[in-house]
Design a protein that fits this description.
The complex is a heterodimer of chains A (about 550) and B (about 260).
Chain A lengths: L21 H13 L2 H24 L7 E3 L2 E4 L2 E5 L5 E14 L2 E13 L20 E7 L8 E7 L4 E5 L3 E4 L6 E8 L2 E7 L6 E7 L6 E9 L3 E5 L4 E5 L2 E11 L7 E5 L8 E4 L6 E2 L5 E3 L8 H4 L4 E5 L2 E4 L6 H6 L2 H22 L1 H8 L3 H37 L15 H28 L2 H12 L1 H8 L2 H10 L32 H25 L3
Antiparallel strand pairs in A: 1-2, 2-3, 3-4, 4-13, 4-17, 4-22, 5-10, 5-16, 6-7, 6-13, 7-8, 8-9, 10-11, 11-12, 14-15, 16-21, 17-20, 18-19, 18-21
Helix pairs in contact in A: 1-7, 2-5, 2-7, 5-6, 5-7, 5-8, 5-9, 7-8, 7-12, 8-9, 8-12, 10-11
Chain B lengths: L1 H13 L1 H24 L10 H5 L3 H22 L1 H8 L3 H34 L19 H28 L2 H21 L3 H10 L1 H5 L15 H25 L3
Helix pairs in contact in B: 1-6, 2-4, 2-6, 4-5, 4-6, 4-7, 4-8, 6-7, 7-8, 7-11, 8-9
The chains are: A alpha+beta (about 550), B mainly alpha (about 260).
């Protein structure tokens, strides 16, 4: 008898196969959240706090020192500022040796020997001494609509520490090479101005090209020197010391096409006589004193002598050509009010996990979805999206009303802008507030999975997200700034209401709600913390018994 | 009453997290204070109030104090233990008083160690950072009048923060909710007070909010310029604590556990 192999099929239920897709998991987590009444109230409360407290803070923020303007020149925070082509406040205060450039043409010079002169001044104890040259001291060539402060311009320059740059209309900065002496050239063609640099005066490399809309047919072209104020702060940053600085540069082989007149030295934006100082030796005319806002060389020099002699000039100057960064950022201060709502969302994130441990629900959850890492990812998605929406609604209500109240309280243009949801900064503040809420809630969730206790998780998360802000205000400046670089609190730079520019060196004091990192890199720090915490939480959830 | 206190002490002592939190109070306070006094330099911050600086850690340690006070109450609600406690000690006031006594005792001990450690760290580190007699700084001494007041006051501050949290926990019962509310008081309101633009509102916040007013007890320089004096400041915190405890007591009496 031989056995014939038979095939037997195992039993299969007639019911459809169970699904354990990620969609199901998301849906179950969403159901858990929406069916706990207290949590829904927390989400709504967080949105309400995020909206109401900044508005209330904006209502109390009266400026003691309102901006006063006359003829486009304003006084703000003890400084004289002009209104730039884009409408923002600018510092436009420098020494300019120029002449009219009719129509198209170009100006070329070799710029070298840029050096600073240290002000002979008593430095109070504790403050750093000024460097030998300000990093953003500038010397180069400029084509400017007029010598009126705030007029449109484009310039190529050597800088103290930042190599060759092309800058235009105050807020724009394009890097060239990192040399300390260079041939520079600016060419105008219609409304378009192109900047070039060259090592030898023969081979030219373009740095950038810009269209200055509405540049008059006859613009001013020439050499300029500026050196910004030196600033130093001590303590928590509440006491600071500033002093004017001066820079000097040698211009040689200056050549201007279609030169029609002689060189004029102007201290643009000068408030008092004696601000400018030009030494011209291109025409053998010796010293020239420039003690007025506008001064012309005494004996009229032959108009072509500068070119013919391949003119050499030594120009000294001080001041700056840059956007004005106000010290006080009232919108940022106002948006610290969103921290109350943020703590509510962090707590909600933590409770979303710890409540499961307290009630034993976690055992059901991991039975339903044995792949544990996905549970936390689903929870993070649900809480992240809801916290984002909660923060977004709150901030979108707060921003326009708070901004309107701030303007009414004296924080006015051109120094402080009215921010709307459609302006770049306004949009960044609103989206940033929502993004911080989302990632901080996920950080709270991860802490909840790590600690398994709501109190500990909320304390730990608040401790690294919110507490550094208060510590940075009371600690010495360097320590405080350091905290705001490495802790998740760095992300609050997303809420800054005034733009910060890399081409302006100013003291960034947490005391004045200035965050050292740029908005999105600050946010990246928060995201990195959240990612590490989530990885740790997933690891622990997989390893530990529930 | 003695039995109630003894029962509370046993409950607190046998929960593993209490020991960790006590260590956290001391470690956070002394650690943060020592870090600050190792960083500050004269010249740089020669106008510093060295006593206040060496007590900076209180700002972190208070979180662990609050955590203990939260655990003492909300853990009972979380586990249903509160029903056993109330069956054993039916008089609500006695139960709350017993909890308050235990929290006070524990925080007094941990707070004293923390503050002494912080002052010692300042005494050792500050002279090396330029805070010398030549620059007008005497070495920190706990026997020096204002420093003694600041140090003892800081311990009292921690006790009051503990009792304040105890009151809020009793009123709110949920650990997550209580923690969020207390952290708002401890850390967000001071931020608002520090950065708020209106001098009038800044003055109000510094005078009347629990932490800003309470921490006035640490000041030893320019006291006349403070928005509120050291002892009146601690008095404001005591008022907040009284209000929180009264609220907690009321909820405990009126609401079913």
């Amino acid at each position: 008898m031989t056995m014939t192999p038979t095939t037997t099929s195992s039993y299969r239920s007639a019911e459809p196969a169970g699904r354990d897709g990620f969609g199901q998991l998301l849906r179950s987590e969403w159901t858990k959240l929406r069916t706990v009444r207290g949590w829904v109230i927390a989400l709504i409360l967080a949105a309400a706090l995020t909206a109401v407290i900044p508005i209330a803070l904006a209502g109390t923020a009266t400026s003691n020192d309102p901006v006063t303007c006359a003829h486009g020149i304003c006084q703000a925070e003890g400084q004289t500022v002009a209104t730039g082509p884009a409408g923002g406040a600018v510092i436009d205060n420098f020494d300019f040796v120029h002449q009219a450039l009719a129509g198209n043409g170009s100006i070329t010079a070799r710029v070298a020997d840029l050096h600073g002169s240290s002000p002979q001044q008593h430095i109070p104890p504790g403050f750093t001494r000024p460097p030998s040259i300000e990093p953003w001291a500038k010397a180069g060539l400029m084509i400017k609509a007029s010598t009126k402060p705030g007029a449109a311009y484009a310039a190529v320059m050597l800088t103290g520490n930042h190599g060759v740059r092309m800058q235009y209309d105050f807020t724009h900065d394009v890097a060239g090479s990192a040399v300390t002496a260079s041939w520079l050239r600016l060419t105008r063609s219609g409304d378009s101005i192109t900047g070039y640099e060259s090592g030898d005066g023969q081979h030219w490399t373009p740095i950038g090209s810009v269209v200055l809309a509405g540049l008059p047919a006859t613009a001013q072209a020439g050499m300029f020197v500026a050196s910004p104020e030196f600033q130093s702060a001590v303590g928590t940053g509440d006491s600071s010391f500033t002093s004017a600085t001066q820079a000097t540069a040698a211009f040689s082989r200056v050549a201007l096409t279609s030169s029609a007149s002689h060189w004029v030295a102007t201290s643009v934006g000068a408030q008092s006589p004696g601000a400018g100082n030009v030494n011209g030796n291109g025409n053998g005319n010796g010293q020239l004193n420039c003690n007025a806002v506008k001064c012309v060389k005494g004996p009229a020099s032959p108009k072509d002598s500068v070119r013919a002699a391949g003119g050499a000039f030594t120009v000294a100057g001080s001041g700056d050509i840059a956007p004005f960064e106000p010290i006080v950022d009232p919108l940022h201060v106002t948006f610290f009010g969103t921290l109350f709502g943020l703590i509510a969302l962090i707590a909600l994130g933590a409770l979303f996990v710890t409540a499961e441990y307290r009630r034993g629900m976690i055992r059901t959850t991991v039975t339903a979805s044995p792949r544990r890492g996905r549970i936390l990812v689903a929870k993070a998605l649900v809480i992240g999206v809801l916290a984002f929406v909660s923060g977004l609604i709150g901030a979108a209500i707060a921003l326009p009303i708070a901004s309107h109240k701030l303007v009414a309280n004296g924080w006015t243009p051109p120094v402080w802008q009215t921010l709307s949801l459609t302006s770049g900064i306004g949009l960044r503040v609103v989206l940033g507030t929502a993004a911080i809420a989302a990632v901080a809630a996920i950080l709270g969730l991860a802490a909840g999975a790590i600690f398994r206790r709501s109190s500990g998780a909320i304390m730990a998360t608040t401790g690294i997200v919110v507490v550094p802000v208060i510590l940075s205000v009371v600690l010495p400046l360097t320590t405080g700034t350091w905290l705001l670089r490495i802790t998740p609190a760095a992300a609050f730079s997303l809420q800054a209401g005034v733009p910060r520019y890399s081409q302006v060196s100013s003291v960034c004091a947490p005391y004045h709600s200035c965050f050292p990192l740029s908005p999105w890199s600050g946010f990246a720090v928060l995201c990195a913390w959240a990612a590490v915490a989530m990885a740790g939480a997933i690891y622990l959830l997989r390893r530990r018994d529930v | 009453m003695r039995d109630a206190v003894h029962a509370e002490w046993t409950k607190l002592r046998t929960v593993p997290s209490s020991g960790w939190l006590l260590i956290a109070i001391i470690a956070l306070t002394v650690g943060a204070s020592a870090l600050v006094t190792s960083i500050v330099k004269c010249p740089g911050t020669c106008d510093a109030d060295t006593t206040k600086l060496s007590l900076t850690g209180i700002m972190l340690g208070q979180a662990a104090v609050a955590a203990i006070a939260v655990v003492v109450v909300t853990a009972e609600y979380g586990t249903g233990m509160i029903r056993v406690s109330l069956a054993a000690v039916p008089r609500r006031s006695v139960l709350l008083a017993a909890k308050a006594i235990v929290v006070t005792a524990v925080v007094l001990v941990a707070g004293t160690i923390s503050v002494l450690g912080s002052v010692l760290a300042g005494r050792i580190q500050l002279p090396g950072n330029g805070f010398t007699a030549a620059n007008g700084f005497a070495a920190l001494s706990i026997l020096h009048g204002p420093t003694l007041r600041a140090a003892a006051g800081s311990v009292l501050y921690l006790v009051l923060i503990g009792l304040f949290t105890l009151g809020i926990s009793t009123a709110l019962r949920d650990s997550g909710l209580t923690t969020a509310v207390v952290l708002g008081f401890l850390y967000v309101i001071p931020i608002i007070g520090d950065v708020v633009i209106s001098p009038l509102w800044q003055h109000r916040v510094e005078r009347w909010t629990p932490t800003d007013a309470g921490l006035a007890i640490q000041a030893t320089r320019n006291i006349a310029k403070l928005p509120i004096g050291p002892w009146p400041g601690l008095g404001v915190l005591a008022l907040w604590t009284t209000a929180a405890l009264a609220g907690g007591w009321l909820v405990l009496r009126l609401r079913d556990a």
